[in-house]
Amino acid sequence: MLFANQPDNVAPDFYSRGSLSDNRGTLSINSFSQGNALVYDLREKTSLRLERKFINIWPYWGIARSPDGKMFWHNHRLYDVRGTEVASLERKELSTGPFWSPDSRYSVYPYALDDSPDNWMDGGDIDVLAPQAFILMDRAGKPVQAVQAEQPGMHVELAGWLPDRNEAVLQYYRLNRKKPVNEQKQEIAYKILSIETGQLSELKSAELEQFEQVDRVMKGIADEPVFFVDRKKGLYWHPERPSVYIGELNQGELVWRIDAYSHLTSQLYIFCAADKKVKMISVKYSLLNNRLYLNRWAVRLVYPNRLVFLYLAGYECSNLTNSKIRFLVVRG
């Protein structure tokens, strides 16, 4: 047993799945209705049970932890990892709560001006808020930028980050609730926001062959969608179908996957900076519902009872169709 201070049995309540800091040094867990919060230092082998209760209201988790595990929001209040209040956000607008940038430097408070049905997207089990504005805050909870939709009936949300540039990508759209869930956003447009100055720069849709430089927009979620921008030329590109970014190969090639639900398979795609082309690698194995991760030269496929490592041998950007695809199966 690693820790003497084990979580209590809170049944019929339940715990979150746990939040692991990006350096894998801290594990935080929280019970839903009772709000019991525990923090485990996995390196020092110490634990902390927070005195304050952080209660959640169904069906939403009310805690938004920073990726580095050192800060979190709860009910419009910002706390450090020990449960000490750092800042508060005195707002009364309709919001689903703050979320963090991937580098933990900023958090965003999206909100709607009223509870009109026009500000909600049909999300299936839970409707999804379509924000009309948001506040961008620094790590200490101090507002640094505020953005509001430019026209009546328009919505705006922060769609991703460019951490190395200290910039964010904004998505503007209108709603058509009569459309299927994945098609309700209409008249979509994108802009780059300078977090330092607040300046907005328009982006236009283009093919990757037109790009001079490629920056990947980061969303900071488990299954990162593919979204590239060329800041210099004001361009953006993303696949037409939902995609999941996997990683980067040694020579800077970007890899992602697209699931073909009708065939119960997935396809791997690679973008080569050398010739600015997207190449598809056909994989005969069924990859649907399996996690793919890139570790330098390998794409790891996790099956229920085995690990499968796929790697590309002896390929060149100009001749990916002749690449060798090899599988190493390690049975669990």
UniProtKB/TrEMBL annotation:
Q: What is this protein called?
A: Protein TolB
Native species: Ferviditalea candida
